[in-house]
């Protein structure tokens, strides 16, 4: 009952009074030329609208206008189609057809553009009742588009669009027969102390692709959950979270979301993702949205994992658990017997298994192959004995509450979607509890680079954000190291592991999913902090140091706000004062000093002083290198930023040098398909065509 009261504050139901509010808020953003913000607000309106109503049609149509101004012509065309499907008013159709034609012309689809113009002219001829001024405006638009079509030749497919598919299909070559999604350069081993782990079967070079695995399950992090309605000035929230910008199934970034038909929370990049999510798990999760937001993302991942398990013969899994339910040992999450029973292979393999004995390594099938499936997920260790009693109690209460709520949903539709689930929720509860405990050390943060900045801004800032929580059975085989020899990146729900340095044959392949050595503090202690260097005798009160740091961070945030408000000169003065204060008590590699130099670089770039901007990026580079190392992905992103600034400043030799260094590092960590690598190559191509390029090698 307590959880129900909490979850009632986070309504995920549709509110049919909301579309008008969000459309008006979006219109205000649109008039201010904040097209991204407008698109998100229109999307919120779509999420609350009934299908086949003027509300949803107008929200889609308005969003198409925002997408058009953002240059997202394909997405704009899709929204135009959606608006028409939901009954967009006939009186407004001509204006929509003009926008559609402009999109088609910009995409080089000239034949379709001509046909749309012809349809528009027929429509105008058949509507003499149109207001004369409106008719004249439309006629002028038609004539302008006709001239544009006449002048424009069919465009070739753009570079990014033409090669996106090829880059996304970067393969491992011949796949490892022992581990799905892994290269031939790695092997699965087991050890009493290390447990299961991966080792190199041959010498591995930096940048070599080692693992490419799609998540067995992933759940989008809700970001900052909106506060209860009574805490808001309005009951409708206008803030933007990851849930508004990314598909809740495939995690692709999109401004043109398509909502779930039954709730206002779940949003997707396409109707295909809407249907796949509904068929596989969302039909069971939909009405639980508020409860799942209250219980947290780990509980949500645990539920979705069990829902996805049914696609791997869950009936047999449930029956096996039911048979073992009388045994206390089996129901305990640490039970080795339970791990062995979750071999979700076919019946023939099970019979063969009984002849040749159990697989030697937990999670492997009868043939000894470790696959990215529910059997492997279930074999991940929950380390129950290492969790505190309080944590285990909270996990158990959360799962119990979720099972109780699921049991209340006894509709035939739910039973059809979740066979076996309604039969004995206690068994499913055992599995969910195990998954919640597993996630503490086996959950993987799916990250993305988030760019921010206004449309008119010369400079945008980027940061790495935790987008979702996922389970990757193969990636979980890598043990932790504070000094890892691999780097992980994500495209949609796919994790890619590459060698970050040379790995010798027989050496263990390691991944950092805890504290990294570059992020460990130089000052150590409790109430009084001392330098970790024994030769240094300086010490300082923790409270005093924290107070000074917080004050400095507040000053930096004020400077960043000045920069966002297009006041770069004032931001520079503020940041220079912050830098002087920071240098008096922070180490040169402290992140705050890096933020200050980065802010100064942005401010000077906004003023068009590219060389001064580059000088501050260089100082930021020094801080990043000292903290993360010369070959880290962080230094690659910083070099990419330097290359952009030097490119804009026409410092050709320096820009080409920065491009070469950035590309070398980002190829190792992100591969050739990353957006940054593609942009670096485009910049190089542009510069090499410049008359300013010097003859001879770069330094």
TrEMBL record:
<dbReference type="InterPro" id="IPR001214">
    <property type="entry name" value="SET_dom"/>
</dbReference>
<dbReference type="InterPro" id="IPR046341">
    <property type="entry name" value="SET_dom_sf"/>
</dbReference>
<keyword id="KW-0862">Zinc</keyword>
<feature type="domain" description="MYND-type">
    <location>
        <begin position="247"/>
        <end position="286"/>
    </location>
</feature>
<keyword id="KW-0479">Metal-binding</keyword>
<dbReference type="InterPro" id="IPR002893">
    <property type="entry name" value="Znf_MYND"/>
</dbReference>
<comment type="function">
    <text>Protein-lysine N-methyltransferase. Monomethylates PRMT5, modulating its transcriptional activity. May also act as a histone methyltransferase. Plays a critical role in cardiac development. Acts as a key epigenetic regulator of gene expression during cardiac development via its dual activities as a methyltransferase and negative regulator of HDAC1.</text>
</comment>
<keyword id="KW-0489">Methyltransferase</keyword>
<dbReference type="Pfam" id="PF01753">
    <property type="entry name" value="zf-MYND"/>
</dbReference>
<keyword id="KW-0963">Cytoplasm</keyword>
<protein>
    <recommendedName>
        <fullName>Protein-lysine N-methyltransferase SMYD4</fullName>
    </recommendedName>
</protein>
<dbReference type="InterPro" id="IPR011990">
    <property type="entry name" value="TPR-like_helical_dom_sf"/>
</dbReference>
<keyword id="KW-0949">S-adenosyl-L-methionine</keyword>
<keyword id="KW-0808">Transferase</keyword>
<dbReference type="InterPro" id="IPR052097">
    <property type="entry name" value="SET-MYND_domain_protein"/>
</dbReference>
<dbReference type="InterPro" id="IPR044421">
    <property type="entry name" value="SMYD4_SET"/>
</dbReference>
<feature type="domain" description="SET">
    <location>
        <begin position="184"/>
        <end position="514"/>
    </location>
</feature>
<dbReference type="Pfam" id="PF00856">
    <property type="entry name" value="SET"/>
</dbReference>
<keyword id="KW-0863">Zinc-finger</keyword>
<keyword id="KW-0539">Nucleus</keyword>
